[in-house]
Structure prediction request, 401 residues.
Amino acid sequence: MNPPRSILFLCVANSARSQLAEGLARALLPRSVRVQSAGSAPTRVRPQAIEALAELGIDAREQRSKSVADVDPADIDTVITLCAEQVCPAFLGRAARLHWPIDDPASDDPALCPAELLARFRAARAAIREHLLAFRERHYPREDRPMTNDPETIRQDVRDHYGDVARQGSSCCGGGSCQVPDPTRLGYRDEDLAAAPAGSNLGLGCGNPLGFAALRPGETVLDLGSGAGFDCFLASRKVGPAGRVIGVDMTPDMLQRARADAARHGLGNVEFRLGEIEHLPVADQSVDVVVSNCVVNLSPDQAAVYREVFRVLKPGGRLAIADVVATAPLPEHLRSAAAHSCCVAGAASAEQVRAHLEAAGFTGVRITAHEQSREVVREWLPGSRAEDYVASAYVEAHKPG
Ligand SMILES: C[S@@+](CC[C@H](N)C(=O)[O-])C[C@H]1O[C@@H](n2cnc3c(N)ncnc32)[C@H](O)[C@@H]1O
Prediction:
């Protein structure tokens, strides 16, 4: 089947479920897909539908409820009905049909308080979103996904991307050669490369945070978004047997690679934990140094990441990360889920990074552009001119003692 290009979401009143589906589909499906919704008895769009979508950064205030009789069947190639307990209106025409039964969140029960009613809309939103993500995965290539403000969708897109990278053993951002780029350009030395397990460097970094983290024997180090473990393995040699390295990553296939290498090389002072950097699976005040390489830009909530880093650092602890920062407003062609996963579209400006760090309580913030940045960034998305809009930078900060 060709990918659906014109979709109608159909339900009884076109006030809740089909409106939620329309808003979500606009945010999640490729921009080229035409999306509309209708019902048998159109009425005003429920304010809870607008509010539930706004919570995901989707503006549905302009959506209008309409009758299925006003939709030309010839314009629609796929109809998705959402009625569960009621009978959906009939739709004539040759469109492909799908049915996602969703319980009606709308209710005129006066006993329901506003919070309970909104909770019903959130549940319907979550159920429709699950269907839509599976539908998107089935029908559209990853690179066509639009940028979204929905944190869970961003994390899922990033996880899908890095799951592929982990399984393939190399990064293929931008459909380039998929070769691991020369790490010495990022500031690593040949002896670093010889010391880490072969295959732990997937060429995903944008600098060398260990080059300025000044790790000392006995320290506890946390690596945010540790990937296949390259920086963790290098850090494990620097902190020695009395020290400890914890890598946190949300992509199971990355952890699998990293854990297998740690076991194979008998690296007892390194461990890898599954988790999100916005909710670190790490105890309060337990870490001396937080490092990271090209990860924070991928987070949908960078302020939360720096708050978490502050929480887990011991008083007097430090942060030493390489990351991508925005140097100019992004053009439309770089506002895509693919450009986000390739460390371009999510970059915050150096001023925003500084503001997040200072709001979290850090002092001594220093953000320094990385010299070979343009050349490195150019290869991530060849031909996109990403290097005119983002650069890699080193970020240093301290938690007061
Ligand atoms: C560009 S790669 C960098 C990997 C590693 N630091 C390196 O230099 O090889 C980004 C990594 O961060 C992980 N990641 C992205 N967003 C994350 C998040 N919100 N929480 C945890 N891990 C995340 C991805 O799964 C991926 O392994």
Summary: The first strand starts at residue 6 and ends at 11. The longest helix spans residues 114-139. The mean pLDDT is 92. Residues 155, 158, 162, 202, 204-205, 225-227, 230-231, 249-251, 254, 276-278, 293-295, 298-299, 343 surround S-adenosylmethionine (CB under 6 Å).
